[in-house]
Amino acid sequence: MTSLKLKTNINRLFGELTIPGDKSISHRSVMFGSIAYGETRVTNFLPGDDCYSTISCFRKLGVTIEEDDNELRIYGNGFEGLIEPDEVLDVGNSGTTIRLLMGILAGRPFFSTVVGDDSIGKRPMTRVTVPLTNMGAKMDGRKNGAYTPISLRGKRLTPINYQLPVASAQVKSAILLAGLQADGVSTIHEPAETRDHTERMIRKFGGEITRDNQLITVKGGQKLNAATIHVPGDISSAAFFLVAGAIVPNSEIVLKNVGLNPTRTGIIEVMKKMGADLQIVQKDDSSFEPFGDLIIKTSALKGTVVEGDLIPKLIDEIPIIALLATQAEGKTIIKNAEELKVKETNRIDTVVKELSKLGASIEATDDGMIIQGQSQLKGGTVSSHGDHRIGMMLAIAALLCDEEVILENPEAISVSYPNFFKHINYLAK
Ligand SMILES: O=C(O)C1=C[C@@H](OP(=O)(O)O)[C@@H](O)[C@H](O)C1
Ligand SMILES: C=C(OP(=O)(O)O)C(=O)O
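Above: the input record for the complex with shikimate-3-phosphate. Below: its predicted structure, written as tokens.
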């Protein structure tokens, strides 16, 4: 494990950034390219570790995937084109890869084993193994099938009518990918709307899927055809610079080509409610995923409450929203966010622990956190705990610190944003 001296005490952030490709959409472009027929071309694919884990798994399943500087090309032969892998499928640190992959493998008539790193080994898998087993797949794993390694033998699947016990796009997507292989029509009811990239991908690849309020319906046996995908920038990555621009004095940042799918824009809603000087310009709704440019300027912020159906629309942004709240006037309360406990780390614990070290006034609750605003942040040694979003949040916090800040395990950041430090250095020039 290495450590890094972070940039501190910054007077201003200024300039224009093009945000790298969306992680959720990049994963799905490889998966759908692999289960469709023909040559899928993907531009602005995120070159993050998690997305390379997805590519590596599908190569082991027999799919030819070529990559050069500008483009990814995936040569799919339908679900039937996937073959039994000779090796275990290693998803690294990626929850999205393992859960969606299991949905695909559930319907394939061969044996496979999925594994990941230590963090993946602690994340719950029953949420996908239960519905997929109900559809007919055979699966087993450590602790009665709850944790990796998990072995699977896919089967001919029966459709399912399923009420999701948690608002999770990964679980929904795993069932949809299995549903596409089932003998009949499956329905999924989600307790709150979650990111809908899988639904949009099904349509983009020529399939049909319908939604009526929180009820989603998909028919098995549809043939998907290759597509040309341009991946918009990741709003979850843009979030770090939206917050940085709002809290570092005298700043103005333009963020280009940011994905603005309404199931992902909770951070914009919250920042506007807190009083952020944030504008959306050049919005383009004509593509399968909307995108646009964002302008953020230093802002006078006030505390807020973040809760309820908004949580799934900003789940990955909560660590950076917590930092934002340390600079707002008054109290911010984050509730109904217990899902944070089962991410790359327990993000309630790691956010509270690491921001407290820098002098923030923040306490953990059962389902979120309470933050008292307007703290002067100081220096210290902090850790990403191997969680990319915690590492990036701490690097943005350091910009406000007037003493030295050392970040342990900064490498984790390459999971979703390999150029992150380059982008900070560019804006803080
Ligand atoms: O479907 C996806 O691409 C994702 C869904 C979310 O997870 P959950 O489905 O577990 O909420 C999110 O936290 C993750 O970063 C990506
Ligand atoms: C939770 C995350 O990803 P995953 O679940 O794919 O590991 C994330 O990127 O914040």
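Notes for the reader.
The chain has 13 helices and 23 strands.
Residues 24, 96, 168-170, 173, 195, 315-316, 339 surround shikimate-3-phosphate (ligand 1) (CB under 6 Å).
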